[in-house]
Design brief:
Layout (H helix, E strand, L loop, with lengths): L4 H25 L5 H15 L5 H6 L3 H9 L8 H24 L5 H12 L1 H8 L4 H21 L2 H15 L13 H11 L7 H9 L2 H37 L4 H4 L6 H14 L9 H11 L2 H8 L4 H20 L7 H18 L6 H24 L4 H12 L7 H11 L7 E2 L2 H9 L7 E2 L6 H6 L7 E5 L15 H8 L3 E8 L3 E9 L1
Parallel strand pairs: 1-2, 1-3
Antiparallel strand pairs: 3-5, 4-5
Helix pairs in contact: 1-5, 2-22, 4-5, 5-6, 5-7, 5-8, 5-18, 6-19, 8-9, 8-18, 9-12, 10-12, 10-17, 15-17, 16-18, 21-22
Organism: Mucilaginibacter ginsenosidivorax
Protein name: Glycosyltransferase RgtA/B/C/D-like domain-containing protein
Keywords: Membrane, Transmembrane, Transmembrane helix
Length: 522
């Protein structure tokens, strides 16, 4: 019994999924967690195990779609849910890429084997699959967005623009920073519309001249440009406005989902990564703007091949170059943040997409395949070196733990404090601010014992803790996030003045946290 190509592809995808799950579970047993996955774990526990009104947590936790994907697998294991989601999601990414490749390049398996090798061995892809982060969703939606744009260029059918618009919405709700990608497509739409007009001239400048000097062509150009703008951007704009209004309704803040540490994990983590790096003795300057694009090319030499393949079409080449402008813009706008690994990986996915569309147009396939092979092999080294030398702690910790096989110690202090809370009497309650203490809340066995900010009684508990709780978790002066919570080292002296009849005693202490017991009311 012979195996069809579709069955063969499904088997490889299943093998990839099992492989990614094995690596992810192995990393989990070595104690590797990143802040994003821990944040999802804590919010999932609140939704399914918490007490009080959880609608705000359910609807405003950001990024929204990765959080929901993690929730789907929480029935299997709350702690492994983000890893399961990223492992299966990365396998789905491979299936989408490989099936698209097989549709377009049916009689040459060389490029398919390149794809398989990348997804099995590339350190960056393994990081995406086994870390529990939401990068897999970003890459899937990014691929689908550019894939449908390139399909539109070939077919001139606005159906593909509609699919690109839906993909853009998913992309934005996976990582809000991609909203800035729209800026660079606003001028590009005019070039796309010009190319779609049935004119004899090939050069864009002459096509524009002819269009503006002919009343009928001018009307057609304006109406078609406006139509593409509407189709491509109206859904993302409407989605963002609706979601911001939802935030305004439930939190009185339009930007709650991107600015509040209760809604998203990266508000404080990005600041911490920057502060740690700048305070280090071997401090390195952030990437210079001029060098970001150079670093992209060094990370993914395949992108040069992609640009070469689209060299004959100006507007298509500009489409491929748009992510370069986007990443440069991010570096300028968020000048105190480092470019994370996911923004380099989008160029790898874009390169593979370009190979799918244009690999067979090259006449000298033998030389071209050698160049592609060398470029693909070089990405294994650059993918590893970028992770190893990353300024982002979670990225560097992943590859260090994976290669060394040693237990990761990053969460030891957190687990120590959470472990002590788990040993407290069953009916005791602990006042916790999960703006910064969400890792401790995530590793607590019974989250119902915690008084958290999503609950209506939290503000009252801060003012008179002895009426609601038996213990208070305080951030010490050494805690890098101590300035972002009321429950810091200044809280106990202040509350002693307000509630003079209450005593507080330290019962457990680490470098960054102190647990106080409310011991008496006089």
């Amino acid at each position: 019994m012979s195996i069809s190509k579709s069955q063969y592809l499904f088997i490889i995808t299943a093998m990839l999924a099992v492989y990614y799950l094995a690596v992810g579970i192995y990393m989990n047993h070595l104690g590797y967690y990143n802040q994003e996955s821990i944040f999802y774990i804590e919010k999932t526990k609140i939704i399914f195990e918490g007490l009080g009104n959880r609608i705000k947590v359910m609807g405003l936790t950001s990024p929204l779609l990765p959080f929901y994907c993690s929730i789907i697998f929480s029935s299997v294991s709350t702690f492994l849910a983000p890893v399961i989601a990223s492992a299966l999601g990365t396998a789905v990414l491979f299936y989408i890429l490989a099936s698209t490749l097989k549709t377009r390049i049916q009689h040459d398996d060389f490029y398919f084997y390149i794809f398989v090798a990348l997804f099995f061995l590339h350190p960056g892809i393994i990081y995406v699959a086994a870390s529990g982060k939401a990068i897999y969703l970003v890459l899937i939606s990014f691929f689908l967005f550019f894939f449908n744009l390139l399909k539109f260029y070939r077919s001139n059918t606005t159906f593909h623009v509609s699919l690109a618009s839906i993909s853009l919405v998913i992309l934005i709700f996976c990582d809000y920073k991609f909203v800035w990608l729209c800026l660079f497509f606003i001028p590009l739409v005019l070039a796309i519309t010009l190319q779609s007009l049935n004119l004899g001239e090939k050069e864009s400048i002459f096509r524009l001249f002819l269009s503006f000097n002919s009343p009928s062509l001018r009307r057609k150009l304006i109406s078609k440009t406006f139509a593409i703008y509407i189709i491509l951007f109206i859904l993302p704009i409407a989605s963002i406005i609706s979601y911001k209004l939802l935030n305004l309704t439930h939190s009185n803040d339009l930007n709650y989902f991107i600015e509040s540490p209760y809604a998203t994990w990266n508000v404080l983590v990005d600041k911490l990564n920057y502060d740690i790096t700048t305070a280090a003795t071997n401090y390195q300057l952030p990437e210079l703007s001029v060098l970001v694009s150079v670093r992209v090319i060094y990370f993914c030499p395949l992108i040069l091949i992609a640009i070469y393949l689209f060299r004959e079409s100006t507007y298509q080449a500009l489409t491929i170059l748009t992510p370069f402008a986007f990443i440069e813009f991010l570096h300028i706008k968020y000048d105190k943040l480092y470019i994370t690994y996911e923004y380099y990986l989008i160029f790898l996915i874009l390169s593979l997409l370009c190979l799918i569309f244009k690999a067979l147009v090259v006449q000298n396939q033998k030389v071209f395949k050698i160049i592609v092979l060398v470029a693909a092999l070089s990405t294994f080294y650059t993918g590893y070196s970028f992770l190893k030398g990353s300024f982002i702690h979670d990225e560097k910790a992943f590859i260090t733990t994976l290669v060394s096989g040693e237990h990761n110690m990053d969460q030891i202090e957190i687990m120590d404090m959470a472990g002590y809370i788990n040993t407290l009497p069953k009916n005791s309650h602990v006042l916790v601010d999960d703006a910064i203490a969400y890792p401790i809340a995530a590793f607590t066995n019974d989250i119902r014992r915690l008084t958290l900010p999503y609950q209506d009684l939290f503000l009252s508990a801060i003012e008179t803790p002895y009426r609601y709780d038996d213990y208070i978790l305080i951030a010490t002066a050494k805690n890098p996030f101590t300035g972002y919570t009321q429950l810091n080292n200044k809280y106990i002296p202040a509350i002693r003045i307000v509630n003079s009849g209450v005593n507080y005693r330290r019962v457990h202490e680490t470098n960054n946290w102190v647990l106080y017991k409310i011991i008496s009311i006089q």
